Amino acid sequence: MESAIDVESIAARFVTTLPHLVATGISLESVSVGRCVLRMGYQDHLVGDPASGVLHGGAVTTLIDSAFGLAVLTAMPAPGPVATLDLRIDYLRPAAPKRMLRADGHCFKLTRHIAFVRGFAYQDDPQDPVAAAQGSFLISPLAGGAGARGGQPL
């Protein structure tokens, strides 16, 4: 995919202006056209089970959904409003306490109205994921859609 947009600028605005990303401490690790990795440091207020220190599933979901949304934005010819239509997450194991969690999202198909994304969440090793996920996102008609990216209209 070629890029006519500044993906770094889009990513920087995304992680610094969305209140839930700021509140959860989610930040950018890497970004390219149609792909990004976001990270979230361990925080006590995001723990779902105080006895074990394991992160709440909602925090993991927020990280994955955010990485997927940013992957879609950077795949579009011109960024615009997107909304999660469907997000399926298979939790493979608990995230170990006190460690950074990352989510890698890849927008692999962009049509006029829908974007398709897949990826995973992991801690130290991408080959040992915490969760695997796939999702679809609604693309606003105002934003364009596939056009320059070669997706097929629905």
Characterization of this structure:
With 154 residues, the chain is of the alpha+beta class. It has 3 helices and 8 strands. The radius of gyration is 15 Å and the shape is globular. 40% of the residues are buried.
Which keywords apply here?
single chain, 154 residues, alpha+beta, Thiol Ester Dehydrase, Chain A, six-stranded antiparallel beta sheet, two-stranded antiparallel sheet, 3 helices, 23% helix, 36% strand, disordered C terminus
Topology:
Blueprint: H1 7-17, H2 19-24, E1 26-32, E2 35-40, E3 47-49, E4 54-55, H3 57-75, E5 82-91, E6 101-110, E7 114-122, E8 131-139
Antiparallel strand pairs: 1-2, 2-6, 3-4, 5-8, 6-7, 7-8
Please give a quick description of this structure.
The C terminus is likely disordered. With 154 residues, the protein is an alpha+beta fold.
Rounded to an integer in angstroms, the radius of gyration calculated over CA atoms is 15 Å
Arrangement of strands in the largest sheet? 1-2-6-7-8-5
Question: Which residue ranges are poorly predicted, with pLDDT under 50 across at least 5 consecutive positions?
Answer: 147-154
Count of domains: 1
Mean pLDDT: 87
Instruction: Let me know the largest β-sheet.
Output: 6 strands, antiparallel
Structural class by secondary-structure content:
alpha+beta
